[in-house]
Amino acid sequence: MFGFRKTLDIVTLFHKASSPASVRVATLLKQLSANATAGASDQKTPTREQFDLNITEDPPTEDQVKTILEYVGPSRISQIVTGATNEKDALRKFKESSGNFVQPVVVDWNNGKAIAGDNESEILKLLKAQK
């Protein structure tokens, strides 16, 4: 009789308003979020399911950085924390200064994915339709 609604996936943009790249990513994510919401009522439109978009200028917590590093894998750690060579080094550099955290970073927490930078095709791939 009563259906349970699935909670929305949470997508976070660690944003830097003074960065043109970050502003482009924020605009893209807002459009994707709006399209997902509009697509929810139009069964003919193939789109990603709705998601909860969180845009923040606050730096991530240390635990969030650890999780993001796990999501991107060892080969992309330096894309998340400037000059880092491994996870331990990245966490040390982040503790020294949250300014070492590269922005923008888009994180899809529910699906375990993250991407740094403003590469639109990579962001679209990260947020591709999930079922």
TrEMBL record:
Domain of life: Eukaryota
Keyword line: Mitochondrion, Oxidoreductase, Transit peptide
Compartment annotation: Mitochondrion
One Pfam family per UniProt: DUF1687
Transit peptide keyword on record: yes
Function: Putative mitochondrial redox protein which could be involved in the reduction of small toxic molecules.
Similarity comment text for this entry: Belongs to the FMP46 family.
Protein name: Thioredoxin-like fold domain-containing protein
Gene source species: Neonectria punicea
Source organism phylogeny: Eukaryota, Fungi, Dikarya, Ascomycota, Pezizomycotina
